[in-house]
Design brief:
The chain has about 150 residues and is of the alpha+beta class. The chain has four helices and seven strands. It is globular, with a radius of gyration of 18 Å.
């Protein structure tokens, strides 16, 4: 009986660790998945725009009927992605015209900052060695949230 409760306790600890680190909920998408997913949604994917940070892959998804673009970075390792995430977060004022409320969520394999101002809605989301940056407007908040939810970012 005592052995069963120890095993159950260990199983619970393992599940809590998996849930809190995000291992069950975050999926790293690669450039092919990003391209396929957003092309299916009607976005045009470009790999010729100049990236703000040096990365192995930089793709931009745009659509004529939305005033934002979805920037996708894939770095050689997680440390490089963390540096780019921190730089975006530290310079978020470059994208905002008024004061903003910023909310950050972090875990073992992900970081996400959402900045909401009078007009802007900006999301920086990193999962492992990838990063997605979207600088949009508050009117498109729900669309941006749904985009990131669909790809688990």
């Amino acid at each position: 009986m005592k052995n069963k409760s120890i095993i159950a306790g260990i199983a619970i600890i393992v599940m809590v660790c998996i849930i809190t680190t995000g291992c069950m909920f975050y999926n790293v998408i690669d450039k092919e998945e990003f391209n396929k997913h957003f092309t299916a949604l009607g976005y045009t994917i470009s790999d010729t725009e100049e990236a703000k940070y040096e990365a192995d892959t930089y793709l931009v998804a745009t659509k004529e009927d939305v005033p934002y673009k979805i920037e996708y970075y894939e770095f050689k390792n997680e440390v490089e992605a963390q540096k780019a995430y921190k730089n975006y977060k530290d310079h978020i004022v470059d994208y905002i015209t008024t004061n903003s409320e910023n909310q950050e969520t972090t875990g073992a394999v992900f970081s996400k900052t959402v900045a909401v101002s009078t007009d802007e809605y900006i999301t920086i989301s990193r999962v492992k060695n990838t990063l997605i940056f979207i600088a949009g407007t508050k009117e498109y908040r729900e669309d941006i949230d749904n985009i990131l939810k669909d790809i688990k970012y």
